[in-house]
């Protein structure tokens, strides 16, 4: 069990990290169909996944369908307001029952032979129901249930009926910290997906280290720190981890003396004159000034959610990598989900989702887009599938995906054996050790 | 041989106020089965028949300008009639809408409605 070992008000609490074993991370796990199959059965079928946003299914009978690897899951709002979920498979002969991504239905009707299911997944009508020698399926057969939970404004599911609850899996600190952003009051203004030519873990690995940021994302240097000796990375129990990136100040890699763009524009919004913050020493304190101004002016300007945030949360970005693939980046004015999902069959391909959720602030109808390009309307966005390369998925996302395919090719080479990781990449090491625990069936170790 | 183009007429279907926000109402005009939809205050008229298994679309949920079929869940873009998802690629017909004296109206010709989509 992790314990806090240091208390600092200006950053997340540092935790005691689990010891690493130094398991080798060989390339086969990114390329082999046999590993892909084991990973599916032993890990994906047992871990919690985000299925959608709670408000997508607000009323009884509202449903959404979510895809994960070869499976499809149907999530349904019940009369009492709770959610239930099922494998989206007709128990008659296996047809997927619902094909749309979301909607509302009194009953779910299989398109093949017309079996009908109620909101609890039980068969309630079937043509020629008395023609089954083994018994009428009505009232007996059902779509196989999955575990469902709602947290952070998301609907989650776990295909393992015996798995520990979502809050138990995440632990109280993660639940409280991410919960402080009140995501259940946010609206998803960006909802994009693409297919990438890499194993899903290449994307996860990328979010599990910031070592690449100085090389791949130099445009962040003016307003976000990513140097490991200033940032804080924590391995959390259960295979999750957290990365803290102080922002609203230039990185120590920044060479200039004046406040660079886009930081200058960002601080002007909070009535701070960038001219007054020139010089290395002054620049180092501008983040604290932004915190002060947001605290002073935020509520009056409609940023009601600031009252639940600690000072550092008013300026900084914190990435939560929730095992295995839910990457939630929280910032003062919105939350991103950057998520790889496994391909149905091919270990060398995956899907990638990019969501951006923002709080509704009175008088603000538009919000800056993390995907670059024009501002986005503050309104629930329709899902958009983008063929990779035909449209931007966001500057940093495009940069990351540009590497993913060439890394996949390199990992398929006979030249590649184990990784050679730095200390600041220890979240990558830990992720693979917990994955090993799942694949090898070491249930005691993986929750440490 | 020349085809005579039938005269167009504006058919008032019902009062806009009769269709609640993000709701819909079916209307019959002769042989035509139409569905009047109110998507966040924007009115659309489409054929009331899913292109997947021909089931009526009335009662389908409307969100973000899309109507979902109550039977199997195919979603249609109300502006273009285009479907989402894997069950069908056939669009439903859409009709240009005018609001006249508070009525939702579409332009029909004697031989039937003039579709703009599908």
Characteristics of this structure?
heterodimer, A: 448 residues, alpha+beta, Naphthalene 1,2-dioxygenase Alpha Subunit, Chain A, domain 1, Rieske Iron-sulfur Protein, 8-stranded mixed beta sheet, 7-stranded antiparallel beta sheet, 12 helices, disordered N terminus, B: 118 residues, mainly beta, 45% strand
User: Strand-residue fraction of chain A?
Assistant: 15-25%
Q: How many beta strands in the DSSP annotation of chain A?
A: 22
Tell me the CATH architecture of the largest domain in chain A: Alpha-Beta Complex
Strands ordered across the widest β-sheet of chain A: 14-15-16-17-18-19-13-22
Shape of chain B: globular
Structural class of chain A: alpha+beta
The total of helices of chain A stands at 12
The major beta sheet of chain B can be summarized as: 4 strands, antiparallel
Q: How many helical stretches of chain B?
A: 0
N-to-C SSE series of chain B?
EEEEEEEEEEEE
| Count of distinct structural domains of chain A | 2
Descriptive overview:
The complex is a heterodimer of chains A (448) and B (118). Chain A has helices at residues 28-31, 33-42, 166-170, 172-179, 200-207, 213-216, 263-268, 280-283, 286-297, 395-411, 426-439, 443-446, and strands spanning 4-6, 14-15, 49-53, 62-68, 71-77, 83-87, 102-104, 108-109, 116-117, 123-125, 145-151, 154-158, 186-196, 232-235, 241-245, 317-322, 326-331, 334-342, 350-359, 366-367, 376-377, 384-385. Chain A has 448 residues and is α+β, with helices and mostly antiparallel strands. Chain A folds into two domains: 4-43 and 185-247 and 316-446, Naphthalene 1,2-dioxygenase Alpha Subunit, Chain A, domain 1 (Alpha-Beta Complex); 49-158, Rieske [2Fe-2S] iron-sulphur domain (Rieske Iron-sulfur Protein, 3-layer Sandwich), CATH 2.102.10. In chain A, the strands form five sheets. In chain A, strands 14-15-16-17-18-19-13-22 form an eight-stranded mixed beta sheet. In chain A, strands 3-12-11-6-5-4-7 form a seven-stranded antiparallel beta sheet, with no helix packed on it. In chain A, β17 and β18 form a beta hairpin. Chain A is globular and about 85 Å long. The model of chain A is unreliable at 1-8 (pLDDT under 50). Chain B has 118 residues and is an all-beta fold. Chain B has a single domain (20-113), classed as Rieske Iron-sulfur Protein (3-layer Sandwich). In chain B, strands 1, 10, 11 and 12 form a four-stranded antiparallel beta sheet that branches. A four-stranded antiparallel beta sheet of chain B has the order 2-3-4-9, with no helix packed on it. The two termini of chain B are 27 Å apart. At the A-B interface, β4 and β7 of A face loops of B.
